[in-house]
Amino acid sequence: MRILITGMAGFIGHAVAKKLAVLGHDLIGIDNLNDYYDVSLKRARLNDLSVFSNVNFIQLDLADREGIAELFKRESFDTVIHLAAQAGVRYSLENPHAYAESNLIGHLNILEGCRHSEVKHLLYASSSSVYGENSKTPFAVTDRVDEPVSLYAATKKANELMSYTYSHLYGLSATGLRFFTVYGPWGRPDMALFKFTKNILQNIPIDVYNQGNMQRDFTYIDDIVESIIRLLELPPETEFGQAPHKVYNIGNGSPVALMDFIRAIEQATDKQAICNYMPMQPGDVSRTWADTEALFIRTNYRPVIKVQEGVNRFVDWYCSFYKLGNQK
Questions:
Q1: Beta strand residue intervals within 8-70, DSSP E
Q2: Which residues are catalytic?
């Protein structure tokens, strides 16, 4: 299968590309390599993929309308896995235009490319953030998601609406992936596990928001990848006059208290965290919890990696990648 992966230098994009490369698929990846976080980590991910002859990378911005159109005209893709986006809830408060350019204009450019080149299946990244402060748990894909509490969440909801419209108008088979707090080796430096591990190892206090009264449905990267690989072969079909568009929660299905997550990092590092308790951040939510029944029915797969095991693997990778030696 010939596949385009957007955001190949990103956390999830790198992991998905590596798995698909091992499986023998022909991959082209794009990424703009912006400086939202350490570009050297992005380049290291690409270097990790450079051993595969069936992986090709092109530096390209989603918002480059002509560049994206030319890519689709020049290449022929069976499937597009669209993972590139401006990430981060808190950063959307500081730089909202970056989210409009990447997540809205960029998403539209990918939809147009798929439409005009007759791509058979588009899988695209949405987010658990679309649920906002949903009081019903666990969060189900049938829940109403019309009250986002951050611009990032609003753009992801918009992505779902845009994709549905293209499915309805043009018959594009599209699958939305609502990711729940992805973590693991090669993760993003702006996320809690990375920041906490770095600070705990250096005996620097960590900022713990909402006084630690938070829960997250932490989902290990390998479980994310396996879910995507299985959905890749299952493009939605037109049924009963409905557009060929489906959305799935990609989560562990088991929320973990933030303080328990911190204790897992303490166990993995054999060091005690120094906690700086803070109020809730604007745009953040207190709890996420994925109902993954629809994913299981469709793929016969449930995430299997427990938090302590996943955190252990991340800390091992972190110490190896940054050449810290044995920290215990």
A1: 26-31, 55-59
A2: 152
